[in-house]
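Final report, Chapter 2: Outcomes

The project's central promise was a pipeline that accepts a single protein chain and returns its three-dimensional structure in a standardized token representation, suitable for archiving and comparison. That pipeline is now operational. To close this chapter, we reproduce one record exactly as it appears in the project archive, with the input sequence first and the structure output second.
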Amino acid sequence: MTLSVIIPVRNERDTILQVIERVRAVDIGMAKQIIVVDGASNDGTRERVQSVLAGDVTAIWEDAPRGKGAAVLAGLAQAKGAFVVIQDADLELDPGEFPRLLEPIVAGRADAVLGVRFAGGRGSTPWPGYLGNRALSSFAGLLFLRRLNDILTAYKMMRTEVARALPLTCRGFDLDAEITCRLLRAGYRVLEMPVDYRPRGRDEGKKLGFSAGWGVLRAIVRVRLEGRPPLVPGEQPSP
């Protein structure tokens, strides 16, 4: 078996090689396919990725920045593993969490696992970002009748067949919320697990701003108001 790791990146020259090496180094008991999707970086990121391309690392070069969601979907189309996870190109989340996130899926206890960043509280996350995420997570939980702690987490581990069954349409950071909402809407078993999180500020390259919240809110409402979702594989249609 193989885990496909999708790394969307734009202008992260200072961290991208460290992220790739950490992904390579973590022992998950199976092979890894690392897919870097570069959104037309212009700071030297692309050249650094080119320097480590090998059998386990491939790259998709976009000719224009199309957004995180578009990059993830491009990577998903190239995923060959039985399992898939999204890894941001900064150092906020540690690939060392992969074995813990993967285990419930391999064991058959979950269809998808979300890495919760705030299980221990706000930590050093700025108040606006923390409260915004909490509000959006609570709102989505209310709509989908499920307690959610971190709808915007990048860490979403699942079977590749599950990811490809989701009718994903978002092209920006709102894809993080759309994935969770569509998993719940379709009735998949979603498990949340705490992960270590080391937030960075805008002066360090943080790209997600307050305005992204409106796109997330629209994605949550749109998925909830859609018609009957596609059947989960193996589910029988109601009479």
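Archive annotation: Residues 127-144 form the longest helix (18 residues).
This record, like all others produced under the grant, will remain available to the consortium after the project formally closes.
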